[in-house]
Design brief:
alpha+beta, 6 helices, single chain
Length: 158
């Protein structure tokens, strides 16, 4: 796949995530809903990237913009192991193949200006913007348990 074709495919994934999240009754929108957005398009992404996995972890920027600190790792692990009254700070994205990733919420969530009019981040765009990703949960069963608990908290507050 050429770089232009890959960029167009990622743009299509972003549009798909936005459309699916706008009609989601639990989350209502793309902004700040990184894990639900990734889950909403995951099967479509897997059709093109069979090794794709959803990651839950931490993200920081070189400029100090951060919504979760690299020190929040323990809180994410505790969230899937014990009942917690509040969700931890975290971020989610889709690892496409071990080298590249797709993050449909990153620019808006991190207040990072889009590069080349892209409303998503991937490995090269994140590097250009000084955004660092560290996965904490990458096993599908752990990510699913994290989501299950997150959804339970979301439904309690709605």
């Amino acid at each position: 796949m050429s770089p232009d074709e890959l960029a167009m495919l990622k743009h299509d994934f972003y549009v798909m995530a936005m459309e699916k999240m706008c009609s989601d009754m639990d989350w209502a929108g793309l902004g700040g809903n990184c894990l639900p957005a990734c889950r909403a398009i995951f099967e479509d992404v897997k059709e093109r990237f069979p090794q794709a996995r959803i990651m839950v972890g931490l993200v920081e920027t070189n400029s100090g913009t951060s919504r979760c600190s690299m020190s929040d790792k323990r809180a994410i692990l505790e969230f899937i192991q014990t009942e917690q009254p509040l969700k931890p700070d975290f971020h989610a994205w889709i690892d496409l193949d071990g080298r590249d990733f797709f993050d449909p919420v990153g620019p808006s969530w991190l207040s990072v200006t889009a590069v080349n009019n892209c409303n998503y981040l991937d490995a090269s765009l994140a590097e250009e913007r000084g955004v660092k990703y560290q996965s904490v949960l990458d096993a599908p069963e752990d990510v699913e348990e994290f989501y299950r608990r997150l959804l339970s908290l979301q439904r309690k507050t709605n």
